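Board notes, transcribed. Complex of a protein with acetoacetyl-coenzyme A.
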Amino acid sequence: MNIQTIMVAGAGQMGSGIAQAAAASGLHVLFHDISSEFIQKGLATIAKQLTRSVEKGKITEERKGEILSRVRPTDRLEQAELAELVIEAIIEHMELKTALFQKLDTICPAHVILASNTSSLPITEIAAVTSRPSQVIGMHFMNPVPVMPLVEVIRGLETSQEVFDSVYELAKQMGKTPVEVNDFPGFVSNRILMPMINEAIFAVYEGVASMESVDQVMKLGMNHPMGPLELADFIGLDTCLSIMDILYEGFKDPKYRPCPLLRKYVKAGRLGRKSGHGFYRYP
Ligand code: CAA
């Protein structure tokens, strides 16, 4: 399928990054969220990243304008009918996602592909609430999207080969490296990453080392660009907890038990960078 216009539904951290990467690759992007305040915030994030690239001499002011001009903000979900592909990037909440997919299913013509950027929720279950499960697929980008090359392309049980091929090709067109993954809790990325982060939190919780030391060990010893606690703050502690809960629920295996300290921080509103305080403080 020839995809030229996409809708990104959800203008948060991930949605903004996806919209930016898509527009930079030449796609037209309908940038949607439920309130114009969220959309404006998302647009400001994209503009800020592009301005940084201009300042570093990586792109021209003209190129920045050209990318921004391809991002069309809208708070009307009905505009999804103009897209060939919708990428959903709202919060990791099954009921909210399925409600959105049901709406999109009624709005979009039959040929439109509905993709979810979910980090761990089952694609098959999301697809099942629509009348087009063969047109539903997972397209899991990594944060920060404009920088990270990976896209996990997740087949739901009913996803057609044609839809898989279109999305795989589109990820390449966006300058990403798609990797095919099947539909299991956490897919591959978060099945491996999150237990590592959770274990790092347990190490602090059990007094094995300070959080700074845990991060140092993983940065200097394993060459990770960020320590696991710094990365948890970057991803968002609420997101980390919800992924651990999904792994725990999905596999019913105690090895995925979320660390009580992670749950405590989330309950306290310490969500990481976005709230100004997680394991570390952010001015
Ligand atoms: N948005 C866009 N670009 C960004 C960015 C952001 N939020 N943050 C950094 N960048 C860009 C910078 O502009 C810079 O670009 P240039 O090379 O073109 O100048 C480049 O990234 C490097 O940035 P910095 O020099 O400022 O800093 P750095 O070298 O420390 O790199 C980092 C920053 C890329 C974020 C790096 O620390 C890193 O790779 N961290 C790990 C990220 C990671 O693991 N992501 C996966 C998270 S898990 C996930 O996303 C899945 C999930 O479901 C939870």
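The longest helix spans residues 36-55. Residues 49, 52, 56, 58, 119, 142-144, 146-148, 189-190, 193, 225-226, 231, 235, 239 surround acetoacetyl-coenzyme A (CB under 6 Å).
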